[in-house]
Amino acid sequence: MTKSDQRPAVVRMQGVCKYHYTDEIETAAVNGIDLEIGTGEFAAIMGPSGSGKSTLLNLIGMIDDPSEGQYWFNGHDTAQLSRREKAQLRKGNMGFIFQSFNLIDELTAFENIELPLIYLKVPAKERRERVENALSSLEMMHRQNHYPQQLSGGQQQRVAIARAVVTEPALILADEPTGNLDSENSRAVMEKLSHFHQQGATIVMVTHSEEDASHAERIIELFDGKTLLSEEEYL
Fold it and tell me: What pTM was estimated for this model as a whole?
């Protein structure tokens, strides 16, 4: 079983499988995963292309549902929740960072970061304070009124990180967060993620980069949808 240490589990999976069907052929993208991610842990998911990394991240993020097995998020049995209830549970409890940034072009950096707080109906004064704090922590206050197309790739990813952390979620999910960045910007982004982890954030990151994975406490390696290796290096 792939486990965290004794910290309370944010993510707990037992026997989770995800099957895909094409032309009557069944393929197990994720095959019998047992997994725990503890509060405040930084875990990296690694493996070759097609090993099930992104599928597992989508299952953790409740973007997709398991075909078999059980998944508890923050103590909630997700199998008992409707699609709407899962969306409500995700809102404010999960922050997503994508390889392609996924910023809204028509919104400024400030407005992109503010958007999840608007969905949570956070009062305007508190929204401004929290967005400004997030921008400051990522050294992006001077770019708050710029639109995504006016920002470099590294700056866009910093805005995406700020958007993910501004709600103070129970879990941050990062899918190849440095995949579209050069080495200098990659290092800067990973330093920022490490900083938030040191402040207590729980992070699960999919990556092909051994350098990026070195920032994590634990490496979960997948092969053919199964856990091949769990390596724990608590700092």
Answer: 0.89
How far is CA 96 from each of CA 61, 156, 227, 233, rounded to the nearest angstrom? 8, 14, 23, 24
Class of domain 39-62+80-232: alpha beta
Non-local CB neighbours of 165 within 8 Å, separated by 6+ positions: 95, 134, 137, 172, 196, 201
Closest to 100 measured CA to CA, from 16, 177, 173, 199: 177
Question: What would the DSSP string read from start to end of the chain?
Answer: -B---SSPEEEEEEEEEEEEEETTEEEEEEEEEEEEEETT-EEEEE-STTSSHHHHHHHHTTSS--SEEEEEETTEEGGGS-HHHHHHHHTTTEEEEETT----TTS-HHHHHHHHHHHTT--HHHHHHHHHHHHHHTT-GGGTT--GGGS-HHHHHHHHHHHHHTT--SEEEEESTTTTS-HHHHHHHHHHHHHHHHTT--EEEE-S-HHHHTTSSEEEEEETTEEEEEEE---
**Which tokens belong to 119?**
């969905």
pLDDT digits (tens, 9 = 90+) for 56-87: 999 999 999 999 999 999 999 999 999 999 99
Distance of alpha carbon 233 from alpha carbon 3, whole angstroms: 12
